[in-house]
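ok new one. same drill as before - structure tokens go in, u give me an amino acid for every spot. 258 of them this time. try not to just spam alanines like last time pls lmao
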């Protein structure tokens, strides 16, 4: 067992500077951008991070949980701290707080990969939708997600929880503008209720970049004009439109079969 794991710091004051920083990162949707690191909690996300080879800068345990913690949680962290349950609840964004959390450094590679199978998020604002789309991207072999300005913060606590670990296997870029898409060398594909063939009738390009738009307005006209392929998702039940996360799952799955 490492020295950090053998001798965790026991913190009992909520005014501790490290805890103050962690509360901000854990509760503020965009604090990670300034801090350069982000917060995940619970067995599932912590295990998913470790499975991808990530090394926590800080591992946080409750006093009750630490004596029972698996070595896989206590050994990899650069620093471990143990805090009372009440202080962990102040960090947690869960209705039923977990007993372990990690602080992880943001990825440093922010360069767009021109040939990567990609998903473009155009002002998708709901954190649950964004996280769900990341899960679909990972499941169906899309390696890069490009979040244009106006999209929910990719590394915010809510998106991380909704992503269920998908973040750790994806190349994520955020805050990009339409002009940044000029570097993409794969065709852009969009869904539209007004043009294009039914998705099941098309041979979709491989690789490609699927553009998913704002929950109410859809893909913006400028991005729609850049697309080389337009498709429609048939809705024989007669609903006006699909939730953007549901549409993304259908489209990305269809691409994986092409």
């Amino acid at each position: 067992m490492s020295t950090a794991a053998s001798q965790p710091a026991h913190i009992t004051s909520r005014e501790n500077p490290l805890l103050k920083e962690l509360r901000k990162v854990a509760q503020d949707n965009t604090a990670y951008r300034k801090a350069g690191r982000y917060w995940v909690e619970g067995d599932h996300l912590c295990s998913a991070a470790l499975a991808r080879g990530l090394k926590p800068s800080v591992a946080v345990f409750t006093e009750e949980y630490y004596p029972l913690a698996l070595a896989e949680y206590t050994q990899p962290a650069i620093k471990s701290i143990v805090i009372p349950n009440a202080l962990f609840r102040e960090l947690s964004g869960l209705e039923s707080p977990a007993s372990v959390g990690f602080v992880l450094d943001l990825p440093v590679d922010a360069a767009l990969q021109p040939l990567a199978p990609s998903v473009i998020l155009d002002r998708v604002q709901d954190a649950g939708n964004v996280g769900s789309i990341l899960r679909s991207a990972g499941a169906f072999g899309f390696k890069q997600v490009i979040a244009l300005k106006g999209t929910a913060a990719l590394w915010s606590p809510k998106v991380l929880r909704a992503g269920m670990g998908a973040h750790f296997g994806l190349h994520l870029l955020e805050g990009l503008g339409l002009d940044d898409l000029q570097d993409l060398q794969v065709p852009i594909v969009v869904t539209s209720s007004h043009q294009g063939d039914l998705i099941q009738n098309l041979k979709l390009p491989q690789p490609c970049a699927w553009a998913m738009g704002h929950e109410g307005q859809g893909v913006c006209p400028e991005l729609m004009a850049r697309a080389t392929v337009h498709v429609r998702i048939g809705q024989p039940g007669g609903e006006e439109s699909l939730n953007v996360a549901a549409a993304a799952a259908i489209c990305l799955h269809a691409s994986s079969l092409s």
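Residues 1-5 have pLDDT under 50 and may be disordered. and btw Residues 244-257 form the longest helix (14 residues).
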